[in-house]
Structures are given as C-alpha cells and as structure tokens.
Design brief:
531 residues, alpha/beta, five-stranded mixed beta barrel, 14 strands, 18% strand, elongated
C-alpha cells in the first residue's frame, strides 16, 4: 500500500512538473512586446525594494559615459511614473524583496554601429538571501534592451501600493531577428522641434526599434545648418524652424545613449527645390528648379560639402542618398543643361544615372556606405556600387530581385509600412513579412531589416505620436521576434498589443487605439485595454 502510494505520488509529481513546464514556457498570457526569443517564468511575485540598485560585479564595461547608469535611471522612472508609491516597506518580508539587478557586460566599448550584438539574457530568481536580478549582455546596448524587457515585467500593486515583479522566476534569452529596425521621420514637410524628436526616440526604445531615419531636407524646406554652405538653410520655413549643427549632434547623442542610430538622408537629385533658395545656381533655372542641375560642377561641390559636414555628426555606417521620384524633364527643357547633355552624349535617363553614381562616389569618399531608394535599382541596378543598400518602398517583389542581384535591401513597402497611410491597420503592419518569397538563406541575409515611414505632409508635433503608435509596434515585433514565434493570425496578439499601447500611454506616449485606422480617436467610453 505504501509502495503503491509512493508510485502514485511519483506519477503525480511527474505530471505536475510537465504541467509546470508547459505553463512556464507558453507565451499566451505574457504581456511583453516585442516577444523575446525564449521565455520561461513561474507564478511567484517579488516586490521592488525602495533602494532597488544596479550593480556591475564581473562586468568588463566601466560605464565611463554613463549610458548604463542613465538607462537604469530611465527604467526606474518608467516603472514608477504611473502611480505614487506610498507603502511602508518595513511591513514587507525581506525575502520577498528584489534588491536590485547585477548587470554583466562583456564588451568594454560603447561604440554604436550597424550589426553590433544586441542580445541579452535576463534572469530573476525566486529566492535567496538577497535576491538580485541578473542581466548579461555582450554590449551595453543589449543590456539596455534587457532593461526595457524588465520594465514590462513590473506593475503597480493596488493593494500593497508597491511595484511588484510578477510571474517569478524568469529566464529570458533574447536577440533581434534583424539588425536594422527603423522609423523614418520627415522634418522638411513640417519642422519637428527637438523635444518632439527626443520623445519619438524614447518611444522607439520602448519597442526596441534601433534606427531613426532622419529625412531632414526636401523640396519644401532645408532646415539644417551646413557650415560649408551656410546659405542652404535659407531654405527653412522660417528662422525659428531650423536645426543647428549642435542640435543635430544632440539628436545623435540622445539617440545613441538609448541604443538608436541616426541615418541621415540627403535626397538627390530630386526633392531639392529648397536648396536653391540660398544658392539659386543649383537650380537648372528659376522656372524649372528641380532636379538639381546635373550640368553644374557646383552642385557636386555642395553635395561634397554637405556630406563632409555630415561625417562630423552622423557616425552611422550608412548615409541615405535618396534618388527617388526624379522627373528629369526639366533638364531637357533647360537650354544650358540640354547643351551639356548633348556634349556628354547623355539622354535624361543616363544623366540621372550619372548623378546618382557620382553622389555615391562622394559619399564613399567620406567613409559612408550608401542607401538609395529603389528607383535607382529599378533603372540601373547593375551599375550601383556594391556597397549600396536598396530601400524598397514601391513595388512587391523588388526585395527578391535586389537580393538575387547580390545587393542588400531594406523593406518599407508603402502598402503595408507607411504610417502616413492611415487606412493601413495595425494587423497589416504586423503581417508584413520582409522575407516574403525569399527562400535561399544567403539571400535572406541580404535583407538587413525593415523600416516604417512617417512622411510629414500631415504630421507635426500635434499628431506625430498617435500616427506612429501602436502600428509601428506591430512592425517592431515582426523585425525583432524570431519568425517561428510570430503569430500566424494577428488576432492572437491583439490583447498583448493593446496592453503595450496602454503601457505607452502610461509612459506619456500618445499612442492611438488599435481599433480602426491609424491615428484614430476612441470610439466611445471604455477601458484602454478594450480599444
């Protein structure tokens, strides 16, 4: 009888352990966004100590620049900001208190560049004499991602009036699927003040996006100071709507300290009418002001000067040279340009190619690799420098052709990943797959990532955040989470994304409801989690 009971107890224990393993490895009830690569958890709760601290025992990273220290301060702020913590900590059992976090970073460097290791491992034990969370990362930027994930494990307990970490113990092993996870902002169509841009950068970090594509100038305005050619920012909307070089450097620094690189764009030869406000000779003529005058050597001297000044501020490996939507008819209608074309034996299309390739050589001379919009590939892909990354925005199937040609690609197809297309819903953002119909592993590696684009014709500081969020978060999970962990049906992640949207609201980010098109207002009174 005792033996039978012991066998039954053993069987029950095995079944119980199996149930626990299944329960702790499932992601169905987890409110983490984007979903990590590997997650296991329990069902116990710990409370954050009022003296919750960061330690770096065993770390090779000295944090001389304070990136980790500042990241930890931001963690405490976002965790504690939503409610007032007014509990008497002396009433809590010390064995249930999480005292802090020990962060171990392998690399002593804080250089941020394309392709750096962003992986991390986060573990939170259930018990111990003094309980500390443990965060391991190869780089400080991986550690910052780990802090973001930790922040989503914390919540305010309305009974105890204290922050708790729920579902302990945790083990999370994580790394991004793609190295390039971008968001484009456009400061030419509408000027965006520095605080607005900084708020966007903060919100990007919450979703683990890591590249701010800054479309700085366009036909409408040239707001950036260029010391080499100081009249260029005469093309700004007003003297109050400009960025100094110090402003630009501040944006780069602010982003870098949050693990975000800044990709600067200088769109040539089209989209450049504003250049000629300060330097009219850049126009083919006053009656036909764009694209930039391909026949004028001064045009390329200015591009060289701009990129020389860029190189002092924008340290990312890539610079974006545009090349899209170039209507070359102006060149053919302008007598001195038409004469130059005849002398060079160029037609207008060949002149477009000449311009793009010459701009590429200038960028290369300043140490950059190049990103160009897809029209350059569609028109003369075999002529592009092999260091070119083709930015797909127009057509379906372009990414397939780009990688088949051996070039790298960024995916931003406008039918699914343009945030200013308000009729594109979050589930369409979520289901847009950058590797669609690209099956060969070597070609898949050439897709370096994707980007959601926020063109600024109807975007300023009043509506920028609710146009970005939560739809950009849907794309962020697609770019971060392993493919086999992504939902095959977006309805499976609706509640989790709604939770993240409400978390953004709690952190002061004006993320719009999920229900309806982009930038939609709530339909009626109700819970944030049901909208």
């Amino acid at each position: 009888m005792f033996l039978i009971g012991k066998i039954v107890d053993s069987v029950y224990l095995v079944v119980l352990l199996q149930v626990l393993v299944v329960a702790t490895s499932t992601t169905d009830n987890l409110n983490i966004w984007p979903m990590p690569k590997s997650v296991s958890h329990g069902s116990h709760n710990l409370y954050l100590s009022k003296d919750f601290e960061v330690k770096t025992e065993g770390s090779n990273y000295t944090d001389a620049s304070g990136i980790l220290k500042d990241g930890f301060s931001r963690l405490l702020y976002v965790v504690e900001a939503a409610h007032v913590i007014n509990s008497d900590f002396s009433h809590f059992d010390p064995s249930n208190m999480l005292q802090g976090m020990n962060v171990v970073i392998s690399s002593p460097s804080d250089e941020l560049q394309y392709g750096i290791d962003e992986s991390y491992k986060l573990s939170i034990p259930m018990q111990g004499k003094l309980i500390y969370a443990h965060l391991e990362a190869q780089t400080v930027y991986g550690a910052l991602h780990g802090l973001q994930t930790f922040s989503q494990l914390c919540r305010f307990n309305f009974k105890t009036r204290i922050i708790e970490v729920h579902q302990v113990p945790w083990t999370i092993i994580d790394q991004p699927r793609f190295s390039y996870r971008g968001l484009l902002i456009d400061t030419s169509r509408h000027y965006q003040p520095l605080p607005v841009i900084k708020n966007v950068i903060d919100s990007m970090a919450y979703a683990k996006l890591n590249v701010l594509h800054w479309h700085i100038v366009d036909a409408q305005s040239f707001p950036l100071e260029i010391p080499s050619y100081p009249k260029l920012w005469d093309g700004a909307y007003s003297i109050l709507e400009r960025y100094t070089t110090a402003d630009a450097a501040e944006i780069v620094s602010y982003a870098q300290r949050r693990g975000i690189s800044v990709l600067a764009e200088l769109d040539v030869p089209g989209h450049a009418l504003s250049w000629g406000i300060g330097y009219p000779s850049l126009w083919p003529s006053k009656d036909c002001p764009q694209p930039l005058d391909v026949s004028n050597e001064f045009t390329f001297e200015v591009i060289d000067g701009i990129l020389s000044d860029f190189a002092k501020i924008f340290k990312y490996r890539f610079v974006h040279l545009g090349g899209d939507e170039v209507n070359t008819s102006c060149w053919g209608r302008t007598p001195h340009v038409r004469k130059w074309l005849a002398k060079q034996r160029f037609n207008e299309s060949e002149a477009y190619q000449y311009f793009v390739l010459r701009a590429q050589k200038i960028a290369l001379s300043h140490g950059y690799e190049i990103v160009n919009w897809e029209e350059t590939f569609n028109n003369f892909g075999n002529k592009l420098n092999r260091k070119t990354v083709v930015h797909n925005w127009l057509g379906v199937g372009v990414a397939q052709r780009v990688v088949a040609a051996g070039l790298r690609c960024i995916v931003s197809n406008q039918d699914k990943w343009y945030l200013d297309h308000l009729d594109t819903t979050w589930d369409q953002f979520y289901m847009n797959e950058p590797l669609a119909n690209i099956t060969k592993p070597q070609q898949q590696k050439l897709v370096i990532g994707g980007e959601v684009c926020l063109w600024g014709e109807h975007i300023d500081g009043s509506d920028v955040e609710q146009t970005i969020w939560p739809r950009a978060a849907a794309a962020a999970e697609r770019l971060w989470t392993p493919y086999d962990k992504l939902a095959k049906d977006p309805r499976q992640v609706t509640a989790r994304l709604a939770h993240f949207r409400c978390l953004l609201n709690q952190r002061g980010v004006a993320a719009a409801p999920l229900a309806g098109p982009g930038r939609v207002a709530p339909e009626e009174p109700g819970s944030c989690y049901q909208q």
